[in-house]
């Protein structure tokens, strides 16, 4: 722990080796310089040559990081992988190609080192008898106990009750792999575990598909004989124009809060959704994001203007109707039905970027530019259709632009307290007479 040579490095004098120098207590670099001389005395050094290699350096104190051989805890993964390969077929992956990728990795998996020498974490659930196993030898069969809690029974060898727990902690990814069960009270049979395990939807970036997602599947299959979730959605990563990940060290990141301050949260969200294709990375810059945010800021303004026209400038004596017969009404309602169907399908497939494209196209070009302009000629008779289309449109947009849609929806007549809990739109099955 102090970075110095232990008594194992003691040098015994021989006929060939007359050096009285000791390596014990020296730092590794000091000992390394002496060893070459000792090897030369013994005639065991064939040659000396210089070569370039990677030397790890501590980022804090800038000293060389010396490797230290230590005992670690491993888990045999082949038996666990067999179960996971059966259970994984019950999960829907988006994009589907990731299922094959994870499947191949699980098939070729190696044993997993699950222990780490860290200050904080969940300690390995292994206990040593202080009397008959003071050296904490994990390889011997006696004087050791595996238990989540401190053993209440005595040691089977010396009948001592003095147990001490292993100091190493579980690997971060092992703890994370237990997360689906541990957060719901496992190993106890809790109501939460019964109700929420497995849950419906999980989302993650693709770069931790092996570290976390595959391992959650494996450990859930092992301990619960079940999948941890039913739908698995992999997002892409946002990168700079050179294809590099955003990082503080490179200084190439884009602070989303700075975008929010200029363009608003709803506009920023919509701009980010344009990069939401499953498993596909996107390249962007601050200039590109500003352009996209500005476009959706203008879209938000268009929604506000529609709300002002339909709600605030509502005619004094509108002709309310439940059935629509005007050809212009039927045409926009048919188009709305198509949009509801397409957006719903895109959401079910997690093609969020395609969903907002359809909503944007319908809102701006078909509703605002065409139908609203047509409705000005027959304002009173078009009011019912205007309100229905606008309210339905707000519901379709709410998952993407939650703030402006809630604000505008609250100005309309409705039963629910929030648009968030209002029913998802269903098509009217309108067929145009044209």
Radius of gyration, in angstroms, nearest whole number? 33 Å
Strand order of the largest sheet: 2-10-9
What's the rounded overall pLDDT mean? 90
Segments where pLDDT lies below 50 for 5+ residues? Answer: none
What does this structure look like?
The protein is mainly alpha-helical. It has 14 helices and 12 strands. It has a 3-stranded parallel β-sheet. β9 (199-205), α7 and β10 (229-235) form a beta-alpha-beta unit. α11 packs parallel to α13. The longest helix has 27 residues, at 286-312. The chain is elongated. The relative contact order is 0.07.
Write the SSE topology.
Elements: H1 28-42, E1 74-75, H2 78-87, E2 92-94, H3 97-107, E3 112-113, E4 115-116, E5 126-129, E6 144-146, E7 163-165, E8 169-170, H4 172-177, H5 179-182, H6 191-196, E9 199-205, H7 209-224, E10 229-235, E11 238-239, H8 256-263, H9 265-273, E12 282-283, H10 286-312, H11 327-348, H12 352-375, H13 379-397, H14 402-409
Report a brief summary of the structure.
The protein contains 14 helices and twelve strands. It is mainly alpha-helical. The termini are far apart.
Q: Which key terms come to mind for this protein?
A:
434 residues; three-stranded antiparallel sheet; 12 strands; 9% strand
């Amino acid at each position: 722990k102090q970075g110095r040579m232990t008594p194992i490095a003691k040098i015994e004098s021989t006929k060939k080796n007359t050096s009285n120098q000791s390596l014990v207590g020296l730092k590794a670099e000091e000992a390394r310089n002496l060893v070459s001389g000792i090897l030369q005395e013994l005639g065991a050094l064939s040659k000396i040559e210089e070569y370039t290699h990677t030397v790890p350096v501590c980022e804090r104190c800038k000293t060389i990081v010396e490797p230290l051989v230590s005992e670690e805890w491993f888990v045999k993964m082949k038996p666990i992988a067999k179960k996971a390969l059966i259970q994984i077929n019950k999960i829907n992956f988006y994009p589907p190609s990731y299922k094959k990728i994870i499947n191949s990795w699980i098939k070729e998996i190696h044993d997993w080192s699950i222990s780490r020498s860290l200050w904080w974490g969940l300690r390995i659930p292994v206990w040593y008898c202080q009397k008959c196993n003071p050296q904490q030898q994990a390889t011997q069969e006696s004087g050791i106990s595996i238990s989540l809690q401190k053993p209440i029974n005595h040691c089977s060898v010396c009948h001592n009750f003095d147990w001490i727990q292993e100091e190493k902690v579980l690997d971060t990814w092992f703890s994370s792999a237990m997360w689906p069960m541990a957060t719901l009270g496992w190993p106890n049979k809790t109501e939460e575990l019964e109700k929420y395990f497995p849950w419906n939807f999980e989302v993650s970036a693709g770069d931790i598909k092996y570290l976390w997602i595959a391992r959650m599947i494996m450990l859930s299959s092992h301990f619960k004989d079940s999948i941890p979730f039913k739908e698995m959605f992999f997002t892409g990563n946002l990168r700079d124009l050179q294809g590099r990940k955003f990082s503080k060290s490179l200084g190439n990141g884009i602070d989303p809060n700075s975008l929010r301050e200029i363009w608003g949260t709803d506009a920023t969200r919509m701009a980010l959704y344009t990069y939401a294709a499953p498993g596909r990375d996107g390249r962007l810059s601050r200039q590109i994001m500003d352009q996209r945010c500005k476009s959706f800021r203008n879209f938000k303004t268009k929604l506000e203007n529609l709300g002002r026209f339909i709600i605030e400038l509502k005619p004094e004596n509108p002709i309310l109707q439940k059935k629509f017969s005007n050809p212009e009404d039927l045409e926009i309602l048919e188009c709305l039905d198509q949009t509801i169907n397409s957006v719903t399908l895109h959401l079910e497939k997690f093609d969020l970027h395609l969903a907002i494209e359809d909503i944007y196209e319908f809102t701006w070009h078909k509703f605002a530019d065409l139908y609203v302009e047509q409705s000005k000629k027959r304002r009173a008779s078009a009011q019912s259709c205007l309100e229905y289309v606008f309210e339905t449109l707000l519901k379709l947009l709410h998952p993407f632009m939650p703030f402006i849609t809630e604000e505008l929806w609250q100005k309309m007549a409705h039963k629910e307290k929030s648009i968030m809990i209002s029913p998802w739109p269903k098509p009217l099955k309108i067929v145009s007479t044209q």
